[in-house]
Task: inverse folding
């Protein structure tokens, strides 16, 4: 079976569960952003559930045509922080390097939804050289984060060549890869690809995007095990999404599943102000309440940091919850179970 790429193909699989009268708006949503749902993700969907949390991430919704006034086409300000095509430079010591805009699946809530897609431009050889020259000329850049799109959509040989060129820049200490491939297209994580992920000098870290425990089926866990067995440190990135994972038991199950797969939960992203994604958004207060509930249920090993990407390109900040309250002559500390305790200043 091939990746599903059209509304018709989704319909054939029984995945279009919205009122058929919304058809024109669904078509509008599908035109605004590419569709891709791999057979491996399709196999994880419970088709008898009209609200399946995996289907919800990839099947277009008529709600995508509702654009709120505060939603942005570039919600995290990539453009404002892009000195050279393919580079985003927000913090002194690190850059994003985006070699391509193709992904194995297209997530309807994507913060780069207006950039990603099979027609999205990849960097030409000259543009890639200019991006690498930018990094080479700045000794303060210690970490290079390969993102996109999904860098694992590059053929292993091209990925190895790109990593070797970044690795040849002596001041780069860490190369980080952000990818959804181990979840969405786990068979792609074969020997050749794993071998490509071995820079000779710099340390490579791997961040995997996963939003629900059910995304970690046997094939996905095997792909992650191949990476972990190769000595690659793994961390997890999750987007907090209404109707997908905005319940404490769902998040708890996901964090436990990630840790069991040797993936350290890293970030829980508050959903960005992406155009047409209001139906995925939860309030920050709700996110903080969920994090508080997780603190009472999970060890530190399984706790992600809840972060907001400040709109306009100002970077990420942790957004709580807080555990310190005011008291005239001491700090008032709240424990994980809601008890309050005085602690001398
Ligand atoms: S895999 Fe990542 S970059 Fe690609 S559509 Fe999903 S969220 Fe966006």
Result:
């Amino acid at each position: 079976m091939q990746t599903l790429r059209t509304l018709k193909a989704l319909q054939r699989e029984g995945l279009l569960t919205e009122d058929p009268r919304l058809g024109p708006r669904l078509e509008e949503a599908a035109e605004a952003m590419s569709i891709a749902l791999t057979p491996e993700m399709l196999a994880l969907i419970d088709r008898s559930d009209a609200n399946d949390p995996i289907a919800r991430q990839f099947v277009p919704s008529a709600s995508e045509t509702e654009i709120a006034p505060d939603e942005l086409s570039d919600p995290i300000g990539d453009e404002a922080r892009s000195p050279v095509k393919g580079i985003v430079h927000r913090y002194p010591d690190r850059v994003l390097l985006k070699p391509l805009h193709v992904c194995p699946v297209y997530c309807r809530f994507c913060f780069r939804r207006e950039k990603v897609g099979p027609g999205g431009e990849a960097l030409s050889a000259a543009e890639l050289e200019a991006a690498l020259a930018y990094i080479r000329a700045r000794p303060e850049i210690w970490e290079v984060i390969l993102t996109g799109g999904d860098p694992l959509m590059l053929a292993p040989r091209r990925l190895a060549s790109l990593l070797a060129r970044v690795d040849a820049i002596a001041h780069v200490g860490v190369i980080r890869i952000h990818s959804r491939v181990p979840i969405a297209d786990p068979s792609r994580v074969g020997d050749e690809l794993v071998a490509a992920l071995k820079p000779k000098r710099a340390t490579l870290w791997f961040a995997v995007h996963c939003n629900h425990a059910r995304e970690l089926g046997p094939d996905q866990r095997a792909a992650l095990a191949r990476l972990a067995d190769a000595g690659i440190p793994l961390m997890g990135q999750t987007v907090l999404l209404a109707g997908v994972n905005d319940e404490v038991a769902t998040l708890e199950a996901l964090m436990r599943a990630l840790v069991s797969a040797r993936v350290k939960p890293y970030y829980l992203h508050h959903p960005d102000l992406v155009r047409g994604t209001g139906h995925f958004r939860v309030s920050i207060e709700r996110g903080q309440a969920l994090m508080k509930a997780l603190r009472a249920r999970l060890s530190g090993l399984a706790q992600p940091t809840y972060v907001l990407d400040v709109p306009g390109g100002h970077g990420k900040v942790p957004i709580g919850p807080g555990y310190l309250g005011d008291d005239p002559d001491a700090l008032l500390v709240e424990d994980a179970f809601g008890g309050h305790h005085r602690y001398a200043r």
